Amino acid sequence: MLRITELRLPLNHAEDALRPAIVQRLGVLDADLRAFTVFKRSYDARKKSAIVLTYTVDCELTGEAVVLQRFAGDSHIKPTPNTDYHFVAQAPASFYAGSNPQPRPLVIGFGPCGIFAALILAQMGLRPIVLERGKDVRQRTKDTWGLWRQGELDPESNVQFGEGGAGTFSDGKLWSQISDPRFLTRKVLTEFVKAGAPEEILYVNKPHIGTFRLVSMVIKMRAEIEALGGEIRFEQKVSDVLIEDGHIRGVTLASGEQIASNQVVLALGHSARDTFTMLHQRGVYMEAKPFSIGYRIEHPQSIIDAARFGASAGHPILGAADYKLVHHAKNGRSVYSFCMCPGGTVVAATSEPNRVVTNGMSQYSRNERNANAGIVVGINPQDYRQDGKADGPVNPLDGMAFQRIWESRAYELGEGGYKAPGALVGDFIKRQRSKVFGNVEPSYKPGVTLTDLQQKGNGSLPDYALEAIREALPAFERQIKGFSMADAVLTGVETRTSSPLRITRGRDYQSLNVKGLYPAGEGAGYAGGIMSAGVDGIEVAEALGSAMLQPS
Ligand code: FAD
């Protein structure tokens, strides 16, 4: 098969225009093109008046070798790479047979990373046991809505904790910028399609599935792991680890139960603060890492659509427009848009009582009134050290303490009940208190309390972050007309952008100082987003599976 990349056609091209375009590009007879499939479709909207669709297509041709030879110097016409997934090892059926079988591997956490780690281990025949602190996704959905509708938080069952992990109540954006020489993102997408995601995620450039579909997909993936002999236990918080002579030997659950294992995947997510503390106390090597803090911003989606697509706004192929913005502020900070959710809602995303955290989600249709995105400022460990020193190593847990300070402040400024503090963009830029909403109604539930986010001595973020965001908002207006409109709403705070620490691992994917312990995914500092967490889960499962099946 032969692959053409960068095949460009106008947005409104006829449905059957692709075939003649391929034939023309390859300079072959129509009859020689036996079949073709679209591998990827993206759009180029840099010129609003002439938006272009860009295709990557795989073609079956008569005389393919000759055509490939003719285009030998053309980087856009190449043999189609084999993107099939190949297992690195497979357990024999007798692997756990015998009088003294070795213990099964444990996977802690059932977010995207834990799901894919468990799935690959199960597909390799290793029958993993998954321990998830939160509830199954149906019950978890009810608990999460309990916070949004009634202001009642369950600290073990919420946006961060429970089956499906942090990404379950999300926009379900399924793309990533990680380098992927083994096409592992394809394996993730293929498994999602098997679990009920629409086929289009395999070819659309920036696929998304929205929150409802994610819920049913997670249930199907759980069923597959169980059908392969895996086990998934909910409401089983790991509260301790058993380490002997630098090797993991098992875990203790909050119930007191101990489970022996020589291989444990830590797929905890970025909000497992109690577990991070426990691991630190047990001496598992970790270090502080940078993350970002800021607010969610909401605009009418129609403003973003018009700014990005002009007269083509509303075109079904384009859908609701997104954006990606970066500004380098004079004080040396970078401000950027994060986890943009077209046509979505801002959600309450705390996992701890009396703290407020924002994030965003949307449905597949992305047809809510507002667009939202995080507007966040990059910070580094020196910003959140708690010991008052100017330099030197930072305690790995300091980033967590720093997040808690601003999340508690947000709760106070929101005046309780998990309401988020908010301000209109016009007031924020002028550094004045907001009093009434304009024509952007914020979507965050249980509600937004308008306030002065920059109160002297009681600001909602550190001064350097406030200053950088004040400078960035008008700068973003130059890229998206209407971005700094006076009525746009900021709500905060956005603190859980990534893990504040890294549980460092070696080239063998194992903890630097505890063998058999495999830190993975976003919480360990090795992923950011559903796709990269899924890919990391696959890689960790491969390393673990190889170590179990082909011990050196
Ligand atoms: P998590 O998904 O956080 O999963 C970790 C799991 O471990 C949790 O279920 C937790 O309960 C469990 N756990 C923690 N401690 C323990 C313990 N001690 N014992 C047992 N279990 C434990 N990313 C995207 O790519 N696209 C999006 O559109 C998107 N939208 C998002 C919207 C929201 C509201 C949020 C919160 C996040 C969003 N993200 C999105 C980010 C994405 O969800 C995360 O990057 C991803 O879920 C990380 O996967 P993970 O498996 O590493 O961790």
From TrEMBL:
Domain of life of the source: Bacteria
SUPFAM superfamilies in alphabetical order: FAD/NAD(P)-binding domain
InterPro entries in the cross-refs: FAD-binding_protein, FAD-depend_C, FAD/NAD-bd_sf
Domain FAD-dependent protein C-terminal: residue ranges: 290-497
Pfam family name, one: FAD-depend_C
Protein name: NAD(P)/FAD-dependent oxidoreductase
Species of the source: Roseateles albus
